[in-house]
Amino acid sequence: MQLSSVLASVLVLVVLRCEAGPHSLMTIKDNGYDNILVAIHKDVKEESKIVDEIQKMFQDGSTYFYQASRKRAFFRNVTILIPDTWQDKPEYETALRENYEISDIRVAPENPLYGDLPYTKQPGQCGDPGEYVHFTPGYVRDDPEVNREYKWGEAGRILVHEFAHLRYGVFDEYGMEEDENYPLFYLHGRRPRVTGCTTAVMGRYLTKTSFGRCQLDRNTGLPEKDCRFFPELKRNRAKASIMFYQFIDSVHAFCENKPQDRHHTHNTLAPNMQNKLCNNAGTWDVIKQHEDFTGSNNPARDISDTSPKFRLVYKRPVRRAVDNKVIKGKRVVMVLDMSWSMRKQNRLRKMTQAASIFIRDNVPVGTEIGVIGFHDNATILENLTIIESKTDAKQMSNRLNAALTKEGGNTAIGKGLLQAIDSLGKDGISPEGSIIILITDGQQNVEPYTWELFANRTLETAGVTVNTIAFGAQADDILEEVGKRTGGMSFYDSEAKGSTGLASALDRLGEELALEDSTEPSVQVNAYTVDLPRKDDTHDKSVFIDETIGKNTEFIFTYLEYGGISVVLRDPSGKTYTVGSPQYEHDEPVRIVRVSIPSAQVGLWKYTITNTATTKQTVQVDVKSRSRENSQPIRVRAWMSATNVDVQKARAVVYAEVSKGYAPIVNAKVVATVDRPQGDPLELELKDNGAGADNQKDDGVYSAYFTNFNGNGRYGVSAKVSMEDGKAGVKTAGSKASAAAYKDPSLAPTIVAVVSPLPSGITRATPGGAFRVTGANGTDLYPPSRVTDLKVASYSYADQTVTLAWTAPGGDLDYGTAASYTLYQTTNASLLTDLSQAKVVSKADVMFGHLDPLPSGSLQTVTIKVPSAGDDVEYAFALIARDGNGNTSPLSSYATAVMRTQSNDGLSMGAIGAIIGGTLGGLVIVCVTVIVVAKMMSKNKVKVLKAGNSSQVNLTIADSPREDMYLTPKPYLN
What we know:
Layout: H1 3-17, E1 27-29, E2 32-34, E3 36-40, H2 48-68, E4 74-75, E5 77-82, E6 93-94, E7 105-107, E8 119-121, E9 132-135, H3 137-141, H4 148-152, H5 155-168, E10 185-188, E11 191-194, E12 203-207, E13 227-231, H6 242-245, H7 273-277, H8 283-287, E14 309-314, E15 318-319, E16 326-327, E17 331-337, H9 347-362, E18 368-374, E19 378-386, H10 390-403, H11 413-425, E20 435-440, H12 450-455, H13 458-462, E21 465-471, H14 479-486, E22 490-493, H15 501-516, E23 523-532, E24 538-545, E25 549-559, E26 565-570, E27 576-577, E28 584-587, E29 592-599, E30 603-611, E31 617-627, E32 634-640, E33 644-646, E34 652-660, E35 663-666, E36 669-675, E37 682-686, E38 701-706, E39 713-722, E40 729-733, E41 754-757, E42 763-774, E43 791-796, E44 801-807, E45 820-826, E46 839-840, E47 846-849, E48 859-865, E49 874-882, E50 895-898, H16 909-912, E51 923-924, E52 930-938, E53 941-946, E54 952-956, E55 972-973
Parallel strand pairs: 2-4, 3-5, 3-7, 5-14, 6-14, 7-9, 17-18, 17-20, 20-21, 21-22, 33-42
Antiparallel strand pairs: 1-2, 8-9, 10-11, 12-13, 15-16, 18-19, 23-31, 24-30, 25-29, 25-31, 26-27, 26-30, 28-29, 32-34, 34-35, 34-38, 35-40, 36-37, 36-39, 39-42, 40-41, 43-44, 44-48, 45-46, 45-49, 47-48, 49-50, 51-55, 52-53, 53-54
Helix pairs in contact: 2-5, 9-10, 9-15
InterPro entries: CLCA_N, CLCR, Ig-like_fold, VWF_A, vWFA_dom_sf
Organism: Lingula anatina
Protein name: Calcium-activated chloride channel regulator 3A-1
């Protein structure tokens, strides 16, 4: 197997997945990126310097970006969203579509895991866009205690580094102190190397705390834990790579595997995130396969002025001419199907219940909302009305029940959408930035069809966001495309037993609406359905209300048949709420029982549902709550990697993020339910183990590939979270993925994971949206996933053995169990690019353990005999996995071992002066007798370290703390 063929397969997947990701407004044309949205969080104190520094960052970054992209891209138009907590100014334009939740770059209070360190939220696969870049106000202002250029380099260069994460889905090329899967050093050529790219970067191995000689660990052959690589900042010769150390003066390019300039050559051996997640592809290899640059898109050209232009926008209330009232929130129109088919399976009643609950519970005060019904034509059921109080919402909710009883005729989706746009465009107000929620169960059969609206760009020109909910398997295929084209979300209620898709989708849209409106959204604690077949049948259940929620808690029970239900709710102290309690409300016309608790106690709430009808009653339970004062609630958010998946070419990934504010929740149990076109829903456990589809362990994002397709059509996803056995916790420290690297490694804080345990019993639920599948033909399409965490756990010189460990893949990517492994062994990792040069480890070589695959996600270990040991003996290992049909995984990441005999000893002068790879030529030692490291001990003192030992003296100088830390010549590569 040649490396080039492996890379080709990876890049195909990159191209096919580039549609995934958040709904950014950003576009590119003629090499310039437009509509880049920078949003300032409402809690950031007003200060003009923040806006000035954002503009300077983009000014400096655009020039560097144009060079780094090889004249193919620059920042042309940037929009800065000013929060409404700042004072309005005449120079601000009115924000329409812009809102914080869709921003590309956020200036917000710090994430406790990162502090002021810039980072990109990047949960996806190789080539998938990130969600946003996060800068803190202190970083943007460059506060004295932050001192950003001293720590991380020029802000414009950092912006380009993070933008590459965000737009192109590339990963960092350095190691991470906190993650053993991405070590700071690795072995190659019997010597320790620094994890990075390219191999031409000059620098030194020194201890982080004392700046002395690094010692080798005899068990691993790698430098001791305190050892760091200190790069040469000013006199380096390396040209790449930006995803390694963009702060080095000479670095201005991304690395690639077959470069025209050898100084851009990618280091495929380094065990970094880029190599492991992109199958050893260079960062430029991935970037040039992005849709922005494929084909003839944005070819290199000379551009004399790459300076960006800026718009400052501000969210202003809109005043209606008809009654002079002010619209403080979003503008929303629900477009509801009232065709004959909605009579089937109680669809109209279910939609009425869900829409009523949405208006009453989820629409924030200040929102303007209207309702359109459609069948042969479109009819206004509720004119656009400003919700000025919860009473207004309740009254509209009650009116909706009567309005939605007149179904009939065909399915005029296009007319419904046009009527919504027309309503939003009246009264002298633009529809741009408004939200449409479309619910339908059928195929459109009345003109204009939605593809006609696409052809005329009607929806795009109006600037509306359309969220779609497909009700049943026959709902029109075009719905996901409507959502995608307008930046909306799509959902699916399969109507399978137990499905809560419609109500949960509206709950999720309510959360998004509240977040866009900067109000506190509700949290879905649990949602499910239960059948009560006979009169007087009961259902007992409990739900845990944790300390982060409890405000305005709603227990909502909807039922379908005449005759009703009764509910008895008991709080943790034993108090009962039932018929006659002031908190208990039974809306018989809509068939909803609701118990409203303004301030719910922490603890277990129990309820009993009794069927009071003479026939079978299907009851849907929905428990929602809001955060307590001064508390951030635990939330779950689920999504799919793409809305359209051709399974012959691409892979579908299910994600769910569990968090408390910025802090991830780790060790939770997360189960996704996938509704399929045929048969029962399928459950899929999502994992946060850094293997398979999951790109980072313990980051609170739980992931899994979905491979069990049973036909083409629409699939829907939901996720439930439970915290069992006291294992789950809130992680408040211990992660730096997709973040900027420190220029001076000694400034980087020691990373120690801090996890605060959570009580058992906490649950959360959320829908994850819908996606359409093509190409499913029943064949076995997927090999086992690539093993990305192969490592040498230990070795024995005396026994001539090496113990390897890895996370087992599945038979279909990370699902099931693989059929077999082939483990390869060479004397040099470079030889693994051609497996014909490698030895296949046989069963006779296995001393302990075995090479039989374990179920996906299991930790697998094996101890093997190697031919010889000694200081000059190096071994490199990699493996592939096969399924029962012979489908083969990509080659795993590499693991290396040097069978040393000596005790811990300082690195030799050659090793101390070693550069990252050292494979591009011999080391030339130039005038190195004393290393002076400008590490400030006090205002005018630095440490002086001698190359031969770790003795220290003080030296008084007048250098600024931002001076180059190296004050004498260094070894370099020819």
